[in-house]
Amino acid sequence: MKKDCLHRYVYLLFFSFMLSTSCKGQGVKKDSSLQIDDYVVEIFEDKNGNLWFGTMAKGAARYDRKTLTYLSTKDGLCENTVASIREDKEGNMWFGTHSGASKYDGKKFTHYWNKEGLHGPGCHILVDSKGNIWAGTNHGAFRYNGSMFSEFKIPNPTVENLSYKWEAGKIWTLMEDRKGNIWFARDGYGACKFDPTTGGFTHFTKKDGLCSNNVSCIVEDQQGNIWFGCLSSDFPSFVNEGGLCRYDASLNDSVGQGKTITQYPEVQGLSKNDIYTIYEDRSGNIWIGATGHGAYCYDGKNFTLFNESDRPDLIGNFMGIQSILEDRDGTLWFGFSGGLFRFNGKSFINITQDGPWK
After folding, report:
1. In a domain, 269, yes or no
2. Is the distance from CB of 150 to CB of 167 less than 8 angstroms?
3. Which of 109, 44, 42 is closest to 73 using CA atoms?
4. Mind listing the pLDDT tens digit for each residue in 144-174?
C-alpha cells in the first residue's frame, strides 16, 4: 500500500451504522480547544434545520442552531463511527455506524443487523422519493420492507483484471436520480443504474469511460448529468487510477462506449487520484474533494481550487475531504480528516465544539 494507506483505511472504516435501545442524555463537554471530532465523515440537515455530523469516534453530533449535543454509545448507540445520516418520511433519523443500521425516533433506537437481514460493515443509507429505504455495505445492497432488510442482488458486469479499493462488490454509496432510478457506487464493478419500473440494470465501467471501476460517489446535477468520483485500486495490487468523470445522460440514455463520459486529466488532482466526495450546491456549482489538493468548484465552465485554511496544521495537505453540505442559510460546511470547517467564500474556517458557528 502507498503512503496514504492510513487515510484510506480510516475512510473505509466510516461506512457503517447506528444502533441500540434507548437514549438517556445528550450533554456535551464544552471546551473551545476540542474539535467536533478528528474525522467528520458525514454532514446532514434535517427538516427542522438541525445540522448533524457523523464522526469517526464520537457518534453523531447535532447542532440545533444553539447547542451542540452528541449521541454516542453511552446514549445507546452500538458504535461511535457514524458515516451515514438520513431522515425518513416519518421524521425518524437513520444512522450508519460500523455495526449495523439504527432508526432513531427521538427517544429510542431500533437496531438492524444480521438477524434483521442486514449484514456487512460499512453501511450507507438512502431514503428514496417513495419512502423506500435502501442500504449498502461491504457485502452489497439491501432493501427495507418496514421491519426487515433483504439482500438486493446486483448482477456483476464482466470486468477484466478485477481490482478494487477495499472489497469487491462493496457499495460505497447509493443515489436516486430525477427519473427514480437507483444508482449504486461499487468497488471493483463500477457504477450500476437500476430502473425500478422495468427491473433492468445498466452498468458503467472503465470500458465505458470511467476513470476506474472503483466508484465512491455519484451525484446528478441540475442538467441531469451524472458525476462519478473514482478511486485507485489497492488490491490485489496498487493501480494508480481514479479521478472525476461526468456522464452526459441527455446525449444517450444508454452506455455509449465512453463517448458520453468525460474525464478531466488536464485538471491537477482530478485524474489518477482518489475522489471521495462530490456535491452540488443550490446555485448549480459542483464541488469536488480532490485528495491532496483541496476543494474544486466547477461553475459549468471553469474549475477553481480552494485550499486555504485557518488551521492547516489540522488538515495538512488536504488529504481528506469526507463530506460537504450547503445548509438552508446558504452556508457551506466541509467535513475533513482533521475536523469540521465552514467555507467563508475564500478559505476554510475550523469549527470546534464552541464554534464559531457563524
Report:
1. no
2. no
3. 109
4. 999 999 999 999 999 999 999 999 999 999 9
